[in-house]
Amino acid sequence: VQFNTVRAFFCSLAIILLATHASSAQNTTPHTEADAKQLVSRAIAAYSSQGRSVFKTISNPAGDYADGSLYVFVIEYEGKTLAHAGFPDQVGNDANRTLDSSGEAIYPSILKKVTEKGAWVTYKYINPLNSLEQVKRTWVVLFDDLVFGAGLYVN
Predict the structure, then answer these.
(1) H or E element: which one contains 25?
(2) CA 30 distance to own-chain centroid
(3) Closest CA to 54 of 98, 85, 79, 77
(4) Could you give the C-alpha distances from 34 to 11, 59, 90, 138, in angstroms and in order?
(5) 126 near 110, Cβ under 8 Å?
(6) Comparing C-alpha atoms, which of 73, 74, 77 is closest to residue 128?
(7) Nearest to 37, CA basis, from 144, 154, 137
(8) CA distance 73 to 86
(9) Residues 44-69: what's their mean pLDDT?
(10) What string of DSSP letters covers 49-110?
(11) Nearest-CA neighbor of 121 among 92, 91, 144, 147?
């Protein structure tokens, strides 16, 4: 009887460890430029059908607009952050005040390149998975005077 209890315990432990490893492997899968573009397109489509009410949904880090280090943000053209799946505490903040490690404001560089067709912008930002500042390549699209973006951290 004792052997079966110990065996059941170790089998359960193995299943838990395998499940944990499988879920963490999903979060570390490298994202592609196509993933970033698709995520931005999905956010724009949701905004088109639901209006600004979708920003709360977009800002949920455990929701459909975040996958590990790939997440959507939405900023008014003037700079107010409306949605941010990677850092929801940024909602309501002025994106013009977000600086990289060299003290440069990130948002003005986004505004210089963003178009309705979309553009890639490169800057440094904190990766929410490891809390390190890394080079980030971000796809940004101007839609309805809003900047929708999602980016890839470059190792």
Answers:
(1) helix 2-27
(2) 13
(3) 85
(4) 40, 21, 25, 11
(5) no
(6) 73
(7) 137
(8) 8
(9) 96
(10) HHGGGHHHHHT-TTSTTEETTEEEEEEETTSBEEEESS-GGGTTSBGGG-B-TTS-BSHHHH
(11) 147
Is-contact 151 70, C-beta < 8 A?
A: yes
> How many other CB atoms are found less than 10 A from the CB of residue 98?
19
The pLDDT of 62-89, averaged and rounded, is 95
Query: Could you tell me whether strands 133-143 and 81-84 are parallel, antiparallel, or unpaired per DSSP bridges?
Result: unpaired
Check: CB of residue 43 under 8 Å from CB of residue 56: no
* pLDDT tens-place string over residues 8-41: 433 333 333 333 333 333 445 688 999 999 999 9
* CA distances (Å), origin 24, targets 29, 38, 93, 123, 154: 9, 22, 31, 27, 19
Name residue, tokens 């990289």.
Answer: 100
Q: Which residue has the tokens 């931005």?
A: 40
Q: What's the mean pLDDT when you consider all of the chain?
A: 84
In this structure, the chain runs to a length of 155
pTM of the shown model: 0.79
